[in-house]
Amino acid sequence: MSLRRNLLPVSIAALVLAGCGQEAAAPVQVAAPAPAPAEPVAAEPSERERAAIARFEPQGDGALVLDRATGLTWMRCSIGQEWTGETCAGEAERHDWDAAVALADAFEYAGHADWRLPTRDELLTITWCSSGHRFATDADGAGGACAGSFRQPAILSAVFPATPALKFWSATPGTMSFTAWGVAFSTAVTGAGNRRDSEHLRLVRGAQYQPAAK
């Protein structure tokens, strides 16, 4: 079944598992570290990766997965793509932040009408650094890109196939009225960007996840 909708295009400044403000003059720009050489795709997933994949339980026809660690149910495909029974086909759509929030609020899929845009913290829980290493985030939760040599996109492709190695919106507003947080699945870095930028989106359902305090 198709997930396509018709809405608007957004640059989340450089956008990893961290927390979800005050008006200021301009958006905070987070410079991502220089991309590391891409890690070759392994023929077989490592033991660590197999354990991470096992965290997700396919639901129904496989179009959804339940994350046992957070209790959240995710769409395996990005908005605009279609689940074929084995993978995600088609082109992932891009929307500005306001359009993304509105689309999520009205979205019905797989017999559910309680889909929503994930918070920054929730979106970060599905990032994956195949290197096993990532940079620290700053006091605001920005940064946190994968470190070393890692595969792109920075997500478990066995769970979320055909994910664009690009930026995805979260529901978390920025500290300025015209910004919102997002995550870039090229490197798993997170940061705030202008709400008018066009980015991808993946929807979630379930009680909001709160990470353990550091």
UniProtKB/TrEMBL annotation:
Keyword Transcription regulation annotated: no
Q: Which UniProt keywords apply?
A: Signal
| Record flagged with keyword Signal | yes
Which ranges carry the Lcl C-terminal domain? 64-205
By its UniProt entry, which InterPro entries does this protein fall under?
Lcl_C
Which PROSITE patterns does the record cross-reference, listed alphabetically? PROKAR_LIPOPROTEIN (PS51257)
N-terminal signal peptide: 1-25
Q: What is this protein called?
A: DUF1566 domain-containing protein
Q: Tell me the organism.
A: Thauera sedimentorum
Q: What is the lineage of its organism?
A: Bacteria, Pseudomonadati, Pseudomonadota, Betaproteobacteria, Rhodocyclales
